[in-house]
Amino acid sequence: MTPVSTDLDRRFRAAAAREHLLDVAYDLVDTPIGALLVAATDRGLCRIAYDADPERELDLLARVFGLRVLRSPVPIDPARRQLDEYFAGKRQRFDLDVDLALQADFNRRVLRELSRVPYGDVVTYGELAMRAARPRAARAVGTVMNRNPLPIVLPCHRVIGSNGKLVGYGGGLHRKEALLRLEGALL
Amino acid sequence: MTLPPFERFYDEHREEIYAFLVRRLGRGRAEDAFQETFLRALRAYPKLRHGEHLRAWAYTIASRIAIDEHRRPRADAELPELEALDGRPAFAQLEHLADELPPTERAAVVLRYGYDLDYADIGAALGSNATAARQAASAGIRRLRRKEVQ
Fold this sequence. Notes:
The complex is a heterodimer.
Chain A: H1 6-18, E1 24-29, E2 36-40, E3 45-50, H2 54-65, E4 69-71, H3 73-87, H4 105-115, E5 123-124, H5 125-131, H6 138-146, E6 159-160, H7 173-182
Parallel strand pairs in A: 1-4, 5-6
Antiparallel strand pairs in A: 1-2, 2-3
Helix pairs in contact in A: 5-6
Chain B: H1 6-25, H2 27-44, H3 54-71, H4 90-97, H5 103-114, H6 119-126, H7 130-149
Helix pairs in contact in B: 1-2, 1-3, 2-3, 3-6, 4-5, 5-6, 5-7, 6-7
């Protein structure tokens, strides 16, 4: 039996995305802090996951965005390129469309404020709550950070406790530390 | 049975669908037909209501594309035997006729008499074997005959 060649497989996956037949495309992106599963809809980047269990992720993406989920590297290439540059210290801002359509209003507002926290800077949960015009919602902001669908690109690693402690990170504190160190915010 | 994410459907069926297309069309033409099969499946995927008989469904799409490929003359490919298809294609008439059969019998009848698949392929498509496929096809035909008499 002739197996499906890598090239044929690659061509099909590219064609599916090119013809806009996918609800979500995803691929794995290697970085110095581990492989990331990166997913995008036609509107933009919709998910970045650390330590992803592919089967679980597939089900989750299908449930949230639609059944036509396919591993397809081409739509992920811009994110891959920018992540590579970021980890090489050659990029401080991501220039990528993001799809936050399915986020609740409050979450979207907080994530938008988060995206404005500059490279190399840090902000406390309380400050971020203030910037999102909800000064008493520091704890809720913490929850939004914890569920950030696009870590790194939406820099929740730049949000720390009011006592200066790193507090927590969805991908593990060692990663938050590594990212802040890369950005020169931690010595 | 709920529909799986497309990646899982593709992953499960791509090898056998490709092998089937290679048998039907030769390797030269199988690649395009393979891509077209799964693109067509993607287009139709949101309309599926459940995850049953996905394999037979994939074979049905692949068979249809293989028939279209047969009809399309191409100078550079070695052509498998081409039977004459006059007027309305057999599979179109059959699909309609067989609409009311139970799913397995329907798939067996359509794949056998509409697409001229052999029982081994049909068995593979239905997740059983050649004998079971033959039985399902003849049970379907008997049922259609009874309906005709009524």
